[in-house]
Amino acid sequence: MSQPVDTAVFASAISDAPESSDALDAVIEQIGPAMDGPVDLFFVFITGHHVASFTTICNRLKQLLEPQVGLGATAMGVIGRSREIEDNR
What we know:
It is a single chain. Helix content is 27%, strand content 25%. It is an alpha+beta fold. The strands form two sheets. The chain has a two-stranded parallel sheet with strand order 1-2. It starts with 19 loop residues before the first helix and ends with a strand.
């Protein structure tokens, strides 16, 4: 007899909004319907001009997603949803 297999669910979002709060709102709007917390893991990659808001961004995502593990990094460019954003301010 076969055992039921859990289906992996994931979401990806990206924003080029110059203000960190606007970018985060756009990302949450994109992933919200697919990701009702809690989730196992989230990754967040932000470009350098959002560094000052890094903790705020991560904390808000943690509240929304209730992850077991969250990982974040800054990057010169980010890719998501078939788009690449590099050196944008």
